[in-house]
Amino acid sequence: MVALASSAKLACGSSSSQEDACASAAPDGKCSKDGTTCLLDVTCRSGPAEISLECQYGYWRHTGTPCTHAGDECSPRYYCGAGTWVFFGGGGNPPAPCPESLPSDGTPCQPGAGFGADPDVCGYRCDDGAGWVTATCSWNDGTGGIATAGWKPAACTPDG
Q1: For the segment 31-84, what is each residue's pLDDT rounded down to a tens digit?
Q2: Which residues pair with 61 in a beta bridge?
Q3: Furthest CA-CA distance within the chain
Q4: CA 29 – CA 98 distance, rounded (Å)
Q5: What is the rounded distance in angstroms from the CA atom of residue 153 to the CA atom of residue 60?
Q6: Under 8 Å CB-to-CB from 118, ≥6 apart: which residues?
Q7: pTM recorded for the entire structure
Q8: What is the 3-state secondary structure (H, E, C) of the chain?
């Protein structure tokens, strides 16, 4: 929602003569009223979420919105890291998206930082839909003199 000086609120994508009301709510979209805030509805692996945007210097910028499921991803490209949503879709050198489904133990991955590397942690709904499970992308111990990288799923943690 957009918070206006008159305390009226508008949904992102709506319009008003008072404000541009997140009319271009996509991150990095242009806006005209610095200080205007908006809650953008996004679809994530964990379910629906709201991301806070603020008009800063004429562009919508993501503000530190808390998240609860480590490694969760949303569309557009938001990622839950260290308890806060991070925007990975606006240029720069972001990591690759998480695999669509929970990878099996040892499935190859590309650890590291930057373009093309896999995220350190990816999160998924448990098979029963009532919990959350993460998988980490990391190097193995190099047994046999060859270091390879693979996904390592954790146990499912019940919601609540």
Answers
A1: 777 887 888 888 999 999 988 888 888 877 888 889 999 999 998 788 999 999
A2: 54
A3: 68
A4: 25
A5: 36
A6: 95, 96, 98, 109, 110, 111, 137
A7: 0.76
A8: CEECCCCCEECCCCCCCCCCCCCCCCCCCECCCCCCEEEEEEEECCEEEEEEEEEECCEEEECCCECCCCCCEEECCEEEECCEEEECCCCCCCCCCCCCCCCCCCCECCCCCCCCCCCCEEEEECCCCCEEEEEEEEECCCHHHCCCEEEEECCCEECC
**Per-residue tokens: 39:** 């809650």
Residue in the block written with tokens 């679809």: 43
CB-based contact 147:139 (threshold 8 Å):
yes
